[in-house]
Amino acid sequence: MEKKKKVLVTGASGFIGSFLVEGILERDMQVWAGVRKTSSRRYLQDPRIRFAELDFTDSEKLEAQLASHKKEHGGWDCIVHCAGVTKCLDKRDFEIGNYWATRHFIETLLRLGMVPSRFIFISSLSVFGPVRERDYSEIREQDTPRPDTAYGVSKLHTEEYIRSLSGFPYVILRPTGVYGPRETDYYLMAKSIARHLDFAAGFKRQDLTFVYVKDLVQAVCLALEKESAARRSYFVSDGAVYASRTFSNLIWKELGRPWMLRFVCPIAILKVISFVSENVGKLMRKPTTLNSDKCRIMKQRNWRCDISPLEKELGYVPQYPLEKGVKETVAWYKEKGWL
């Protein structure tokens, strides 16, 4: 009987991480969910899941945890590193929570002799920032990244570190906007539309791309299975390009087309609102969804990206065009009483 591949998913309690755990289990692999001691296990109820408590905020504690795991269970065949931060009170915390945490993790794996045969890093299209905005052509791997958000900078620094490691068996995936059940930021849009308000940023043309969380899971699983993926980076989307209103229009449709007031906020006013929201969050010691980083993301006009290498090299075939994905997502929000 063939031995099951052992896969660690870090950040397993989060939106993307919990779907990764489910998807990898479906492919008959042994899955270890990397979580903090205090992490919610609400979406990690499958009895086949094994747990590894990992604290990325404390490098010494993390080393002790990994050493203990190696002694008791051995290492992992593959690691999908999804842990990281997307919202911070202080911009410097992005560098700590994304770059430094990942660097300490990898350095510890190297010291302990626990480097897997495949290390998949979940990065972001945000590492490239506002490029190709004159002709709205696809962002390509050969383009020079110039992120304009603290989040994007931290992800880029992490990518650069990973690529600098000689012989390290990485695969970097750069998804565009990821949506689906359990996700909370796009949910705020659905909640607003349910309350008869829709909001858009800026008057200039904006080309958007999305990827349904289950399609991202497909890309990760292909990267786990295909030997040709070693030391490569790929963009991930559903392969289509959408106008700025398409996402909200589809939500509106799934909600039964309620009456709605639509607003377009000039970027200058959005900057002021984001500044106020961010500073209120600091006073309350709670990160806010609308902040200066989010403002720059909403300001960006071109989110097209070239997924042909992922399709040709790994056989990726998106299963969820936006209409299908939004339909499933809104149905889940309704079923769970979120809407």
Structural description of this entry:
The protein has 339 residues and is of the alpha/beta class. The model has no long low-confidence stretch (mean pLDDT 93). It starts with 5 loop residues before the first strand and ends with a helix. α4 links the parallel β5 (118-122) and β6. It has a domain at 6-180 and 210-239 and 303-319: Rossmann fold (3-Layer(aba) Sandwich), CATH 3.40.50. The strands form four sheets. The chain has a seven-stranded parallel sheet, with helices on both faces. Strands 7-10 form a two-stranded parallel ribbon. Strands 8-13 form a two-stranded parallel ribbon. The chain contains eleven helices and 13 strands. α1 crosses α6 (213-225), α3 packs parallel to α4 and α7 (246-254) packs across α11.
Straight-line N-to-C gap: 47 Å
CATH fold-level label of the domain at 6-180 and 210-239 and 303-319: Rossmann fold
Number of E-type strands: 13
Fraction of residues in helices?
Answer: 40-55%
Q: What does the overall shape look like?
A: globular
Percent in strands: 15-25%
Helix count, DSSP H or I runs of 4 or more residues: 11
Order of helices and strands: EHEEHEHEHEEHEEEHEEHEHHHH
What can be said about the biggest beta sheet?
A: 7 strands, parallel
Strand arrangement across the biggest beta sheet: 3-2-1-4-5-6-11
Structural class, from secondary structure content? alpha/beta
Taking pLDDT < 50 over at least 5 consecutive residues as the criterion, the unreliable ranges are none
Instruction: Report the mean per-residue pLDDT as an integer.
Output: 93
CATH architecture of the domain at 6-180 and 210-239 and 303-319: 3-Layer(aba) Sandwich
Taking all Cα atoms into account, the compactness measure Rg is: 20 Å
CATH C-level category of the domain at 6-180 and 210-239 and 303-319: Alpha Beta
CATH superfamily of the domain at 6-180 and 210-239 and 303-319: NAD(P)-binding Rossmann-like Domain
